[in-house]
């Protein structure tokens, strides 16, 4: 994995700790679980959570009585995940490079790939990861792959989140945006240490095509935060049951709409071996 030191440094600094419990992460976490529950309708599945970080989804899936294996490249994330398990959500957790999954052929019912594909800027590395997922999945097994939209930084900077800043007046920021929009490569300038580390940002069809190159059949694509994420005072509205349900209704009506899916910061491709 290129820029491995940058990636490890980013996650060793605790980037994932509490991220899904605040701000837009709350909506991302809720929606990701909502989508997964559409397809994971039984328990006792063998699930590999590849690149699963500190184990937030591994913990949730293990509570649903699945056999979960958290496999992540960052030793600090694995250590944190193991230290924060409880008796009701135990899972296996091991250090693993997604390009060389340390599991046997056709041993998983389900694979989550909700991180590695957007930290690999070389398409050959991404295809190697997808090939490994194909290898470890049983025939008929499901793969859930998440991408970050190549438009995510741009829409963030011109939305309610960036409106109080002057990013569009900063040449360094604009140079970063241009590279994202033209190549998909996100290279974080040192001037913006709070942004996600080096990454590759897809558009939805591009991610789907890469997954299909590895032999998978696409079942569906889902916007995760969708078109509601730039709603003013989103978290306040989310806390109100009535407004939250209306926002979710909008999301559920539009989550598969390809013409606007790239507006969502994250999207998920559901595919089958």
Automatic annotation (TrEMBL):
Organism: Paraclostridium tenue
Coiled coil: none
UniProt name for this protein: Methyltransferase type 11 domain-containing protein
Domain of life: Bacteria
Family matches, as InterPro entries: Methyltransf_11 (IPR013216), SAM-dependent_MTases_sf (IPR029063)
CDD domains in UniProt: AdoMet_MTases (cd02440)
All copies of domain Methyltransferase type, residue ranges: 49-144
